C-alpha cells in the first residue's frame, strides 16, 4: 500500500494513494518511526519465594514524558509491581543498556540511572539493593491461579510517569526455582 501525506502541517492525515482512505497509526508506532521508542529487559532463573528482579530508573526533569508499557512473565506464580519514589543503596545492582527500537536512530533515551553515584544518563539499573520508602502504585498477581500474565492489554499497562521521579518495576517470585522476565518499552513525548 502506498501512502501520501496531505499538504499542511505534520499532523495532517495520511491518505492511501489508491483508495483515498484515511490511514491512521497509533502514537507509539509513530514514535517508533521517529526514533523516540526505547526498550530494555531483564531476566533471571532459579529465583525462590520472595526473590525479585527489577529495573530502576529516574525520569528526566523536563517537559518530555515517559509513556511506559511493562510486560512481566514468570514460570510459576509471581507478583509484578511498580514502586514510585523509592530510594536505593548507591552503586548497587548493575548498569543496564537501553536500546532505541528504531535501530537506524542515534537518539538516546532521557531516563537516568540515579542509583549510580554520580547518576548516569541514558541507562537503567537492574537489581539494586536497599530499597526504602516510595509508593506502590500498581500490583498484579500472575501465573499459578491468576487468570493472565501481565502486559496483555495495552491501555491497562501504559503509564505516563511523573517527571524527576525514581521508578522501580519489580517481579517477585512466589514459588521456588522460578524463571522471571521483565520487559519495558517506552516512548518519550
How would you describe this protein?
- The chain has helices spanning 27-34, 154-157; strands at residues 3-5, 14-16, 22-23, 37-47, 52-58, 66-74, 78-84, 94-96, 99-100, 112-113, 120-121, 124-126, 135-142, 158-160, 166-173, 178-188.
- The longest helix is centred in the first third of the chain and has 8 residues, at 27-34.
- The model is unreliable at 1-9 and 147-154 (pLDDT under 50).
- Helix content is 6%, strand content 44%.
- It is mainly beta.
- Strands 8-12-5-15-7-13 form a six-stranded antiparallel beta sheet, with no helix packed on it.
- The protein has two domains: 1-34, no CATH class; 39-188, Mitogen Ypm (Jelly Rolls, Sandwich).
- The two termini are 28 Å apart.
Short description:
The chain has 189 residues and is mainly β. Helices cover 6% and strands 44% of the residues.
In terms of topology, how is this protein built?
Elements lengths: L2 E3 L8 E3 L5 E2 L3 H8 L2 E11 L4 E7 L7 E9 L3 E7 L9 E3 L2 E2 L11 E2 L6 E2 L2 E3 L8 E8 L11 H4 E3 L5 E8 L4 E11 L1
Antiparallel strand pairs: 1-2, 2-3, 4-9, 4-16, 5-12, 5-15, 6-14, 6-16, 7-13, 7-15, 8-12, 10-11
Order of helices and strands: EEEHEEEEEEEEEEHEEE
Q: Please report the first level of CATH classification, the CATH class of the largest domain.
A: Mainly Beta
Number of helices: 2
If you average the pLDDT, what whole number results?
85
Amino acid at each position: 500500500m502506498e501512502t501520501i501525506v496531505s499538504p499542511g502541517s505534520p499532523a495532517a492525515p495520511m491518505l492511501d494513494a489508491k483508495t483515498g482512505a484515511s490511514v491512521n497509526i497509533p502514537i507509539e508506532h509513530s514514535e517508533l518511526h521517529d526514533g523516540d521508542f526505547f526498550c530494555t529487559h531483564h531476566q533471571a532463573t532459579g529465583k525462590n519465594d520472595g526473590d525479585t528482579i527489577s529495573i530502576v530508573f529516574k525520569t528526566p526533569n523536563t517537559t518530555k514524558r515517559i509513556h511506559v508499557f511493562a510486560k512481566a512473565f514468570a514460570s510459576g506464580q509471581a507478583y509484578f509491581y511498580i514502586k514510585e519514589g523509592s530510594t536505593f543503596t548507591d552503586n548497587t545492582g548493575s548498569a543496564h543498556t537501553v536500546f532505541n527500537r528504531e535501530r537506524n536512530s542515534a537518539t538516546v533515551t532521557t531516563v537516568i540511572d540515579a542509583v549510580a553515584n554520580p547518576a548516569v544518563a541514558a541507562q537503567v539499573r537492574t537489581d539494586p539493593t536497599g530499597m526504602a520508602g516510595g509508593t506502590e502504585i500498581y500490583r498484579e498477581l500472575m501465573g499459578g491461579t491468576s487468570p493472565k500474565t501481565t502486559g496483555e492489554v495495552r491501555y491497562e499497562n501504559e503509564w505516563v510517569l511523573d517527571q524527576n521521579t525514581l521508578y522501580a518495576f519489580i517481579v517477585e517470585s512466589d514459588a521456588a526455582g522460578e524463571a522471571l522476565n521483565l520487559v519495558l518499552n517506552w516512548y518519550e513525548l
